Amino acid sequence: MADSEATFSSSPAVEKLGSSDLLSVGKGYGTYGIVGATVIAIVLPVLLSIVFMGKKKVKQRGVPVEVGGEAGYAIRNGRMPHLIEVPWEGANTMAALFEQSCKKYSRGRFLGTRKLISKEFITASDGRKFEKLHLGDYEWQTFGQVFDRACNFASGLIRLGHNEDTRAAIFSETRAEWFIAFQGCMRQNITVVTIYASLGEDALIHSLNETQVSTLICDSKQLKKLAAISTKITTIKNVIYFEDDGSATADDSSISGSTSHWTVSSFSEVEKLGKNSPLPPNLPSKNEIALIMYTSGSTGLPKGVMIAHSNIVATAAAVMTLIPKLGSNDVYLAFLPLAHVLELAAESIMLTAGCAIGYGSALTLTDTANKIKKGTKGDTSVLKPTLMAAVPTILDRVRDGVLKKVEEKGGITKKLFNSVYKRRLAAIEGSWFGAWGLERMLWDFIVFKSIRDVLGGSIRFMLCGGAPLSGESQRFINICMGARIVQGYGLTETCAGAAFSEWDDTSVGRVGPPLPCCYIKLVSWEEGGYRISDKPMPQGEIVIGGFCVTSGYFNNQEKTDEVYKVDEKGMCWFYTGDIGRFHPDGCLEIVDRKKDIVKLQHGEYISLGKVEAALMSSNYVDNIMVYADSFKNYCVALVVPSHQALEKWSQQVGIKYRNFAELCNKDETIAEVRQSLSKVGKAAKLDKFEIPEKIKLLPDPWTPESGLVTAALKIKREQLKSKFKEELQKLYD
């Protein structure tokens, strides 16, 4: 599920999977497999495809609905005649949902963490040191045990001196204690401020001071970072740290115990304090703010989205209806950042359904992950999850790694893999009956088993969010991992809720119908040429209304008023700035972005205008348009270079050319201009992904007469994209 500000990419939780992470493909090929496959794969499917030949009936997944507010074309989920607000009666807050689920599934395993057996540091040939971990099995806590710990922490937090009228912040990587601390705060109606563990110093100071946090809960490794900015954090009184492996104490050299500003305590100390002096809960109402979730920020400082209890519960209740057979037999792999709305929503869904949650990390996910000691197992191998959420970057790298292995093997392995893949693809797309039944089982055993073992071998359902997933990668995961993979669309401002592909929808490039907790309305954007009257599909800005829509931005009424609108019936609508179209079956497709802000493949936002303004300071640039493809993890640029500056450089280095166009096409020239862009980009503190990786130098200036810039010489982005479509595509080839 995408969101308008906060994405996975700003977090280290995006694992850099490559071919080294993948087991050998083609293991087990032999005479038995080939002969058996020949009989089953050719003869049987031919007969069955004739028998079952015919047109598929289109399922209506979303239906039009009359709603209030600005005129538009609105759709609701086709499963439900009305919006879902709660998973069951009485569970209308996170505190109530947590308590009721923990009682309902009290003896079932809930939160699992791997035991740390040993750690060591190895030195690479270049002198760099790397930490390697030997991790054991998962150690599980039941729902009942987790509930007791959350209650103890809640009491301990108040006994420690936390003022119930102030906020607590969680500044940590994803782990079981994060979830327990969050639920503990909910028991005492304490609003939690979530902050990415990777957040920069300025944004961290801004987030803590703006929300006037009095208690900060963090990893022990964050204490040094906090100490460095302690004089700039004005309201914190208590700091509670998670022990790294249960052995850290307040006497450690990295932990000061107390300062003139703070009282520092370990998480276990606070739990013990609450256990010895329990307090009754102070339960919230459904409309009270559970979270202020800080986004990664597209430009400037991050914004804090105010998420009510009812928003989280509604999203969990809605998604519950769409995942088949979700329950206590499922195991969810948690490794994405809990400070991101998608992971928090996912774990809330697991809580509601009684699923087990096993915690891992990006650096320990697979057997060949960076922090896993050679010869020991990664998280997926030990946990064998059935459910997981992922971002496109991970899935694209899995795909690239598998294809690289296949290419390296060559010969019959490559031919067999390609042949089987094509047949399975045809089956999924409905043009061939083959690759199902016995044939599918055979191919799974011979060709795909070793690929699936990379993620534990038991994945049955995957959710991809944070950025668009390419159709090729979606199909690849369907086939090679044997898992249903669905795309979701949502935002921090809608508590991850908006649209969700249904499990039996085999199409690609769409994000499904609206979740049953909300409506999605398209509003015409005349300026951009997107209208609800467009044929064959209505198009427009995506506007979301319903129980998942949050109440606005903390301490930022001006921005709230820009994008949140309450209609005559009292329903709040969030204007996303994204452009979508509805297919005839009621499924949404994202087609454009209203603003000059693009989300890259790994989820990072890039503000094209901001980057262009920074790069214009290069002496070589006369004009520039930065372009970003959402299916890529870098941007490119079209540059009109300064004749004078470029010709002066060419004379200095002795480059010969017949005309300016020839000079612009020379590799040395392109390299020089790109180096200059990199230099000014770094000086402007642009992130790496904001500096164009490839550029095209265009010798002819952009003028108002050409229609490529306005009379005020502002670039016309859509016209430039259209005119230089081929050049932009070549930059990504």
From TrEMBL:
<feature type="transmembrane region" description="Helical">
    <location>
        <begin position="29"/>
        <end position="52"/>
    </location>
</feature>
<keyword id="KW-0472">Membrane</keyword>
<keyword id="KW-1133">Transmembrane helix</keyword>
<dbReference type="InterPro" id="IPR020845">
    <property type="entry name" value="AMP-binding_CS"/>
</dbReference>
<feature type="domain" description="AMP-dependent synthetase/ligase">
    <location>
        <begin position="133"/>
        <end position="554"/>
    </location>
</feature>
<dbReference type="InterPro" id="IPR045851">
    <property type="entry name" value="AMP-bd_C_sf"/>
</dbReference>
<dbReference type="InterPro" id="IPR000873">
    <property type="entry name" value="AMP-dep_synth/lig_dom"/>
</dbReference>
<protein>
    <recommendedName>
        <fullName>AMP-dependent synthetase/ligase domain-containing protein</fullName>
    </recommendedName>
</protein>
<dbReference type="Pfam" id="PF00501">
    <property type="entry name" value="AMP-binding"/>
</dbReference>
<keyword id="KW-0812">Transmembrane</keyword>
<dbReference type="InterPro" id="IPR042099">
    <property type="entry name" value="ANL_N_sf"/>
</dbReference>
